[in-house]
Amino acid sequence: MTRPRGSAAMARQAPLRGTAAAASHASVHVRTVAPSHPRTVAPSHPRTVAPSHRRTVAPSHPRTVAPSHPRTVAPSHRRTLAPLEVRSATAADAVAIHALISDHLEEGRLLRRDLGELVVHAHRFVVAVDHDRVVACADLAPLSRTVAEVRSLVVSEEARSLGAGRRLIDELVGRATAAGFDKLCAFTHAASYFVQLGFSIVPHVWLPEKIDTDCRTCPQFRQCGQYAVMLTLTRSRQSCVPLASLHG
User: Looking at the predicted structure, is the pLDDT value of residue 116 above 50?
Assistant: First the structure.
């Protein structure tokens, strides 16, 4: 049997290839790598910073403040009133009451009172007294058997901050209640003051007793500009002031 020529050639070359491959393999030399020496880094020397010449501040000395001397205020020479005495007036007080009313007529809120009338009706007044001097007064004037009026309420300027007016009105309220009156009224330019004390502003026609007794004969009738104020009283079961003594 005849081999193909190509096959013979391949056969002859095959051993050669193997031999050459073996020879080339045998001649391969492994490259030896020398051991690597780690790079030695010189130790770092920390930078030495020259000490800063920082300005030394001397310790602060707290400022010593001289102790303050409180200002001495000279005592006021304003006269201090002793606690006021509120009492019933007598005929001996009529002159002082008349002077007190006359001194305040220019304020335009009072009606003139005659000295003789004040002597007769002094018992109806209550007065506030400071060191035997009358500094305030008020009159409890009956208008009818059921209605009484606060009249001629005057408080001197030096006693107005001492509650003299309130004390006089409280006294008159007590006396009017004890006398059996049902209502206590006043005709005034200072209605707010009476409202603070429990009175109410009412129409003038609610008090016809006042209109018939005083207003119709007054030269300032319907022109006085006064308010009518009224307080309803709780009648006391035991009246201790005879009505005749008030009308007398």
Answer: yes
Determine which of 62-71, 112-121, 218-227 has the lowest per-residue pLDDT on average. Answer: 62-71
The answer to whether 111 and 98 are in contact (CB under 8 A) is: no
Structure tokens, 58: 């001397």
Helix then strand then coil, % of the chain, to nearest 5: 35, 20, 45
Q: Determine contact, residues 180/236, Cβ cutoff 8 Å.
A: yes
200-202/227-232 β-pairing: antiparallel
DSSP state of 70: P
Distance CA 43, CA 40 (A): 9
What pLDDT, on the 0 to 100 scale, is given for residue 216? Answer: 76
What's residue 159's pLDDT? 87
Burial of residue 142, with CB atoms counted within 10 A of its CB: 0-12 exposed, 13-18 middle, 19 or more buried: buried
Write down the mean pLDDT value for the chain. 76
User: Which run of H or E residues covers position 228?
Assistant: strand 227-232
Tell me which residue of 64, 199, 83 sits closest to 130, measured CA to CA.
83
Half-sphere exposure of 110 (CA within 13 A, CB side): 22
pLDDT value of residue 178:
95
Q: Is 155 exposed, middle or buried (0-12, 13-18, 19+ CB in 10 A)?
A: buried
Q: Which residues pair with 62 in a beta bridge?
A: none
d(C-alpha 52, C-alpha 146), whole Å: 103
| pTM metric for this prediction | 0.62
